[in-house]
């Protein structure tokens, strides 16, 4: 999955002073598949932003086939490559991770879904490290909608579904997105420029093609969920101790 | 538990909220995420957007193209010199390509402001040559004609004929007095 960049001629643009001297752009620039990026002029200095900016996250699809609904999230298009606006990505990622953390704190079942075979193992191991669940194989039609019959009565459905790629192998929207909306389950989804973000509750515009980007997202979600669960355990211990303290003192 | 499977109407939150308001879903059965969503709603409601039929005719560009001032220089560079002499080494993140060096030198010379636009291009080439970067123009001959051995232009049959006339007492079996047709591969 490599970019035919060099054949286009104008490649390897990654200099901050270009931003100052250039026409229109004052945001993050795209470089090539491996090397990246300049420091933009924004003053946001969160750790996440720095990490994101140093990765080819805003380098999505290679042809101008951006979904119409993704156009507000795009920064521009450089030689037919759609560049995602990272400022928006940071905000969306922040809210998505916050939601995930709160949900994990309340003790819920989270399901990671990704139909990208390249990252199947990564997603599954992330889920295992968090203590949550993953589904990276063929999605059977009635998985959510016909669950009581397929898995037995009284089965508990996930309370949050995290899509690491909202597309399936035929570049159509994953059935899980629609099914989760049907079953009133909120979703967090990594939407690339050829995805439809309308049904995803907390879309995060970003690149889902490169391993570096996927590893970053997996790491972030794993960290969020683990921290939320640790906090939960901590609070329970504190409450347990305070309850014991009250009973012994009284 | 009751639910609403109408994903095309309203968002997940509105449906659950209305179900609770109407009493179909009890407060005790409230989903875990309900309060969290209420406290931290997403920026845009996840409403289902119906796919619009394709609009034929003129469509305005919603996504702006990104171009820089340096692109003019780069375009000219690639037109004249083709791809540079050195390939791009993407394993290094601070790699400066030939074209980028050219652009930097060009802007440097431009900032000095002594030369005019037409000669700026040539001057940059010369300046880079002085630094040791050789640029070769595109479209030139693959091999310089001066260095080509004239023997390569001769036909094999004529050479054979020469050999045979040199050899003693042989009937010259020339295949015919053909002219040097330019059929030999260059």
Summarize the structure in short:
The complex is a heterodimer of chains A (250) and B (186). Chain A is α/β, with parallel strands linked by helices and 250 residues long.
Main pleated sheet of chain B = none
Helical stretch tally of chain B: 6
The count of β-strands of chain A is: 7
The major pleated sheet of chain A works out as: 5 strands, parallel
Count the beta strands of chain B.
Answer: 0
Mean pLDDT of chain B: 80
Low-pLDDT stretches of chain B? none
Average pLDDT confidence of chain A is 77
Q: End-to-end span of chain A in angstroms?
A: 68 Å
**Total helical elements of chain A:** 8
Which structural class do the helices and strands of chain A define?
Answer: alpha/beta
Helix/strand order of chain B = HHHHHH
Classification by helices and strands of chain B: mainly alpha
């Amino acid at each position: 999955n490599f970019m035919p960049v060099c054949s286009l001629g104008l490649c390897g643009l990654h200099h901050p002073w270009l931003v100052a001297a250039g026409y229109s752009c004052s945001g993050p620039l795209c470089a090539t598949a491996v090397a990246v990026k300049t420091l933009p002029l924004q003053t946001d200095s969160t750790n996440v932003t720095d990490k994101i900016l140093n990765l080819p996250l805003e380098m999505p699809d290679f042809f101008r086939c951006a979904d119409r609904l993704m156009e507000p999230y795009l920064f521009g298009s450089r030689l037919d490559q759609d560049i995602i606006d990272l400022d928006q990505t940071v905000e969306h990622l922040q809210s998505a991770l916050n939601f995930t953390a709160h949900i994990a704190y309340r003790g819920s079942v989270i399901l990671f879904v990704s139909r990208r075979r390249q990252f199947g193992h990564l997603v599954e191991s992330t889920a295992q490290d968090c203590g949550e669940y993953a589904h990276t194989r063929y999605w059977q039609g009635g998985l959510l909608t016909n669950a009581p019959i397929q898995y037995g009565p009284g089965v508990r459905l996930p309370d949050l579904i995290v899509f690491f790629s909202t597309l399936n192998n035929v570049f159509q929207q994953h059935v899980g997105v629609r099914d989760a909306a049907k079953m009133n389950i909120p979703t967090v989804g990594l939407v690339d420029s050829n995805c439809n973000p309308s049904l995803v509750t907390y879309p995060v515009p970003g690149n889902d093609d490169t391993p570096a980007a996927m590893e970053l997202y997996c790491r972030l979600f794993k960290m969020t969920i683990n921290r939320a669960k640790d906090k939960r355990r901590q609070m329970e211990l504190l409450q347990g101790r305070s309850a014991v303290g009250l009973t012994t003192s009284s | 538990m009751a639910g609403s499977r109408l994903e095309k109407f309203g968002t997940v939150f509105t449906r659950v909220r209305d179900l609770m308001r109407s009493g179909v879903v009890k407060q005790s059965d409230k989903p875990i995420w309900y309060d969290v969503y209420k406290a931290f709603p997403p920026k845009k409601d996840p409403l289902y957007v119906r796919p619009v039929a394709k609009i034929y005719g003129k469509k305005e560009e919603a996504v702006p193209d990104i171009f820089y001032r340096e692109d003019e220089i780069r375009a000219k560079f690639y037109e004249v010199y083709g791809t540079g002499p050195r390939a791009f080494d993407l394993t290094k993140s601070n790699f400066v390509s030939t074209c980028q060096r050219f652009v930097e030198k060009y802007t440097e010379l431009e900032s000095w402001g002594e030369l005019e636009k037409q000669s700026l291009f040539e001057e940059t080439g010369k300046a880079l040559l002085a630094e040791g970067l050789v640029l070769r123009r595109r479209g030139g001959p693959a091999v310089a004609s001066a260095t080509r051995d004239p023997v390569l232009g001769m036909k094999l049959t004529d050479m054979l004929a020469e050999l045979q006339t040199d050899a003693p007492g042989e009937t010259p079996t020339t295949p015919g007095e053909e002219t040097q047709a330019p059929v030999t591969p260059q």
